[in-house]
Amino acid sequence: MRKIRAGILGASGYTGSDLLRFLLPHPSVEITFLTADKHAGKRISDVFPHLSGFCDLELSPLDPKALPEDLDVVFLALPHGASAKVVGELYDRDIKIIDLGADFRLSHEVYTVWYGEHPHPGLIPEAIYGIPEINRERLKTAKLVANPGCYPTSVILGLLPLAWEQLLEPGLVIADSKSGVSGAGRSPSLDTHYCEVNEGVKAYKVGEHRHMPEIEEVIREYSGIDLRVQFVPHLIPMDRGILSTIYVRLNKAMSTGELLELYGKHYENERFVRICPEKAYPSTSQVKGSNFCDIGIKGDPESKSAIIVSVIDNLVKGASGVAVQNMNIMMGFEESEGLNIPPMFP
Amino acid sequence: MRKIRAGILGASGYTGSDLLRFLLPHPSVEITFLTADKHAGKRISDVFPHLSGFCDLELSPLDPKALPEDLDVVFLALPHGASAKVVGELYDRDIKIIDLGADFRLSHEVYTVWYGEHPHPGLIPEAIYGIPEINRERLKTAKLVANPGCYPTSVILGLLPLAWEQLLEPGLVIADSKSGVSGAGRSPSLDTHYCEVNEGVKAYKVGEHRHMPEIEEVIREYSGIDLRVQFVPHLIPMDRGILSTIYVRLNKAMSTGELLELYGKHYENERFVRICPEKAYPSTSQVKGSNFCDIGIKGDPESKSAIIVSVIDNLVKGASGVAVQNMNIMMGFEESEGLNIPPMFP
Amino acid sequence: MRKIRAGILGASGYTGSDLLRFLLPHPSVEITFLTADKHAGKRISDVFPHLSGFCDLELSPLDPKALPEDLDVVFLALPHGASAKVVGELYDRDIKIIDLGADFRLSHEVYTVWYGEHPHPGLIPEAIYGIPEINRERLKTAKLVANPGCYPTSVILGLLPLAWEQLLEPGLVIADSKSGVSGAGRSPSLDTHYCEVNEGVKAYKVGEHRHMPEIEEVIREYSGIDLRVQFVPHLIPMDRGILSTIYVRLNKAMSTGELLELYGKHYENERFVRICPEKAYPSTSQVKGSNFCDIGIKGDPESKSAIIVSVIDNLVKGASGVAVQNMNIMMGFEESEGLNIPPMFP
Amino acid sequence: MRKIRAGILGASGYTGSDLLRFLLPHPSVEITFLTADKHAGKRISDVFPHLSGFCDLELSPLDPKALPEDLDVVFLALPHGASAKVVGELYDRDIKIIDLGADFRLSHEVYTVWYGEHPHPGLIPEAIYGIPEINRERLKTAKLVANPGCYPTSVILGLLPLAWEQLLEPGLVIADSKSGVSGAGRSPSLDTHYCEVNEGVKAYKVGEHRHMPEIEEVIREYSGIDLRVQFVPHLIPMDRGILSTIYVRLNKAMSTGELLELYGKHYENERFVRICPEKAYPSTSQVKGSNFCDIGIKGDPESKSAIIVSVIDNLVKGASGVAVQNMNIMMGFEESEGLNIPPMFP
Asked: Does B282 touch chain A if contact means CB atoms closer than 8 Å?
């Protein structure tokens, strides 16, 4: 079978690196085009020596008009705003687009509140929100996919079974998330300077992070339940991983056992969601490098509440891995093709 | 002025190490006696090479009867159960006792639920709970001090102003805490083996940690408010530090500014509590090695709730530092003597 | 094509975990048998939750006599001494054996100096030393392979081209190696307790490490040159990776360019050795999780010396990865099958 | 006694932070002036929240002419080139100057080779090289002190007793150094971006680091021995600490015991150099936060060589701590005043 031809716009960041980690050995994909504005002219192996011997493509500047005609799919790993412009230029061409940025995740109304003006609001309704566990059927025919945010993925997968079963009490939900530093990208800044981050934990954007409205919108759209998420992200001294501890109130008392059964049933056919046994709570290190979301649950029937602990690798299930999963679905490949590798522990 | 003579029972753990870091250069204290059962006969500098040149005492086995007569104060850094027995043997002697363990922190009733039988329940009412910001006056004449737990210190200092002002809504409060690994002590185990902990975050004892009832009891005792704390501790790949993110409901709407003013006023004479400016949230690295508790606050008047972020060094304000602070108060020294050093950053 | 059936004796350590990471998705291998004495009766996914969904085999106790008859190959990840005994019991069966321990790496004479009595000295000459870059042809027909030590692999691959070309001056060579903590295994001890290792570097077994004679013997055997290696291993606060900085004296002046050309030519057909461009020196993070050895070189013609910097992932090219590479060669598979995946960065 | 008045030029980096950690609680010093060009107008506690409650000085722009008249001593923590210019402007004033930069460490001839033109070559001979273990007497009357480099401090203190006793064989010496990331300063760059450094070790500036000639010059000047140092620095994923493994050839065979005795005798009156017992090698974590240099030694009489392992905290004995030690000597204070605190472990 002919391999499809794929390109990555914005290949020199950590998301680009992890896309290449999965796509270069992917049996059905050939990587033929890469851009990286500030490294244009260099080879990808100059920017990422770990890829030496795997890929030697020259990095092109970002210019949607100069995109090769023969690409079947393009991944956008660009800053917000930038990808919307690129999508505007590419949308009429015969190409599938997977946007790993924020530009097509939110409704137009909410986008403008959190990000400002949108360059192509008319395209927003065309984008399919790329959590396969929610939108698998619609993804099969999607032309444009809005890859989900990393924090929202961990929180939404933790809430979905309760949301779908209408067991969530509307109102305040607390999502206390802890992320490794790679989530902040590869551009140097004081906030991600080694000695500023190492040996410390801090909260940031308390109650003001742009991933908060994404969670609220998705839960509302797919379950009708109005949550008000108090979302506090924390920066943890490690490379990869997000752990979200989610505190919910339920509309009925449920034991841990009942909750585990519910989650087990909902996710039983999902390759990339694993439910932990009772009293076991996942570490981010058990999903490192992989496309899994592992979930542990504690019910508190007395207070009709529950605590859900969900972990992902932010660069994989939170970015590149789910993008490849979405591509597999869009292209009719086996959904786990190229992703079916065990996590790396330690 | 004569220096007081101090001893440490259980000197070979991380708490012992940090007690020595503060007590060896303390102008009013002389360390004259150390025990460490499994290292008895060695010198402390064999067990802790970093103390070479500061202290060369030989480690004695733990035997309360063999305690030198001339000690003025003794610090107990022992496993729970063990310190209660030692206190029982020492209580009739003319010596001040600071117990860094859990044996005298809880009421007898609650202790038995979480730890089992108490060896000396009659002594429990004699112990003063050692958070100086609560009990300074009573500590001045205390003979036996129950040093607080590390997690509870971070949570209680974060809640106190709201509790004292009767602004906390009774019922569920969420305390999501993140701790460095030194909190687990110095005994090797798979859970604290380097590669098991590094590059990962995990929750443990979800809703079942023994520090949960301590928080509830202290808040109830000192404010009359009945909280039900959903406490989830997390293990973070770093040596020192606890960050607690506390989600509370208030009985009236309060802005961030109003909350900061309230906290500023309550803690204005406290040397070791610092309130962060609006929109700033503390990192554990800004208190590393020091006796400070730094607090950041976000009010959410719309939902009558607030988020409090509090950080300490678990080995200092959460253990050894507050023990020295308590000793200073008990002995009539200047309260910050020997503790007035800046945090170490980075 | 029928998959071969493989077993791992000693599957619950980090080497076992990484063997499973490569073998479970390997297209030509089926894992059918695992032992782990202290976890016998549990499932591998209880011991390694990250493998949940990939392997659910029950762990057997270690008993060579109870080994299933239908195994084609068995990997031994056992303490030294233990594997020699097992090999003694299995050697007459129709099975290929890859020993990841130290029992068959050294000549009998040298073994007894460093390890004491050998249980089966008669088998030592039967073992092929498993560095494919040296012994590819002999490995094709090997029945018993002695997988090399992790430190020696990094040093030997760094020295080979100079040794083969007879450019190394006999006598003192310095190998200053830095290793991540996984090299010390998964058994808890104070030396690998998180807070003892984190935020510190230390040297250990200075001039006394058992990997020193392995380097000397291999270089002598395959090049005739008598080196006296001053080998100092250091423990670095990270999970994976070995970097060896090797200081050699040459018998003629060579520039960096000449050295790079020599190394490039020697390794040009080796899939898993990559030579860095001039002035670039490898980081262990550029081989993390992969089977590569990356090498950077600096010539110092004035003093007729050179500095070679070589990096591997100690658990992969230093243990499990090269074991799989050896298996591929022994079984007639494509040598890089199952190993052809990019490193994970970050 | 009146406290002396001290200023720091370039106070917003890690060296500035650690100078303040020691100087703010120093009994004989009052900090009255701070500059930080890019943060001019802010308070130091805005830049370093950990110093809140200790110092609230406003940061001035760097302008030597605007330096307050009443300063007794000034510390320069500036980029190379910058401090020479400042010294030029200040030298005629009645003020003591401690330069933590590189501008006055080398002879003019060597400086120009490694750094280019020197702004004030005439002042170079006025500067006293600030290793107290070498230059204590001359420091007592010094007006201008050239604080030593961090790497050279660790190597020179490791070599001194052998150099002074004329036991070092001239020619090649190997210094393989491992440094924490704080040595690279506080300015963000890709090289010190968290995920680039974490979980990896790399060599850099192999045989080309500017600290190499400093070591050679100092040994030659103070012992007459011509060494050619092959110096390879490595970056280690930790905040603080340098470990140097030094491989030397001796002009006679010496056992470990003889070497330890020699070192013990030479350093017996040095408060800040500690010699480890036989077979013990220091970890950087045993000097963390302190002004100590700890040294372990292994003799190899058979090859007339030795291995010396020396550790310091690069920000303390390698920068700020030794600067305070030098200030104490210059001002006639007790040499260890303000520095006599135990290391922080863990």
From this structure: yes
Q: Report d(CA B147, CA A209) in Å as an integer.
A: 38
Q: By the CB < 8 Å criterion, does D255 face chain C?
A: no
Supply the pLDDT for residue B53. 97
Provide the β-strand partners of residue C230: C174
Query: Alpha helices, DSSP H only, in A24-139?
Result: 44-47, 82-90, 108-115, 132-139
**How far, in Å, CA of A28 to CA of B140, rounded?**
75
CA-nearest of C140, C143, C130 to C333 is C140
Closest CB to C50: pick one of A53, A54, A286: A286
Q: Is the domain of A245 the same as that of A128? A: no
| Token pair for D196 | 């680039």
C97 occurs within a structural domain: yes
What is residue C2's predicted lDDT score, i.e. its pLDDT? 87
Per the domain annotation, does B336 fall within a domain? no
Identify whether residues D114 and D82 lie together within a single domain. Answer: yes
Ramachandran class of C41: left when φ > 0, alpha when ψ lies in -120 to 50, beta otherwise: left
Cross-chain Cβ contact C50/A343 below 8 Å? yes
Q: Are C205 and C322 contained in the same domain?
A: no
Alpha helices in chain C (DSSP H): 14-23, 44-47, 82-90, 108-115, 132-140, 150-164, 194-197, 211-223, 256-266, 320-331
Q: Integer distance in angstroms from the first to the last C-alpha of chain D?
A: 36
Task: Please name every residue paired with D122 in a beta bridge, in sequence order, or none if there are none.
Answer: none
C-alpha distance across the termini of chain A, in Å? 36
Counting every residue written for chain C, the total comes to 346
Domain contains A132: yes
Q: How confident is the model at residue B80 (pLDDT cuts 50, 70, 90)?
A: confident
Angle at A332 between CA A329 and CA A335, to 5 degrees: 45
Burial of C222 (0-12, 13-18, 19+ CB in 10 A): middle
Claim to verify: residue A29 and residue A90 sit in the same structural domain: yes
User: Would you call A234 an interface residue with chain B, using a CB distance cutoff of 8 Å?
Assistant: yes
- Does C257 contact chain A (CB < 8 Å)? no
**Cis bond upstream, residue B346 (ω within 30):** yes
Count of domains observed in chain D: 2
Confidence check: pLDDT of D337 > 90: yes
Distance of CA A119 to the CA centre of its chain: 22
CATH of the domain at D180: 3.30.360.10
**Domain check: are A157 and A298 in the same one?**
yes
Same domain, A53 and A93: yes
Coil/strand/helix, residue D172:
strand
pLDDT digits (tens, 9 = 90+) for D62-100: 999 999 999 999 999 999 889 999 999 999 999 999 999
B209 and B256 housed in the same domain: yes
Record: contact C307-D202, CB cut-off 8 A: no
Chain D: residue nearest B311 by CA?
A: D50
Does the pLDDT at position A46 exceed 90?
yes
Q: How many helices (H) and strands (E) does chain B have?
A: 10, 14
- Chain B residue at shortest CA distance from A287: B200
Cα separation of C156 and C134, whole Å?
A: 10
Task: Name the pTM for this structure.
Answer: 0.98
* ipTM tops 0.95: yes
What is the Cα–Cα distance from B145 to B319, expressed in whole angstroms?
A: 12
Domain identity same for A123 and A188:
no
What pLDDT does residue B343 have?
98
C341 within domain boundaries: no
Quickly count: other Cβ atoms within 10 Å of residue A319's Cβ. 26
**Which candidate in B52, B192, B278, B281 is best for mutational testing of the D interface (most D CBs within 10 A)?**
B52
Say how far apart CA C183 and CA C180 lie, in whole Å: 6
Q: Does D286 touch chain B (CB under 8 A)?
A: yes
* Domain ranges, residue D238: 151-314
Of B49, B289, B342, the CB nearest to D54: B342
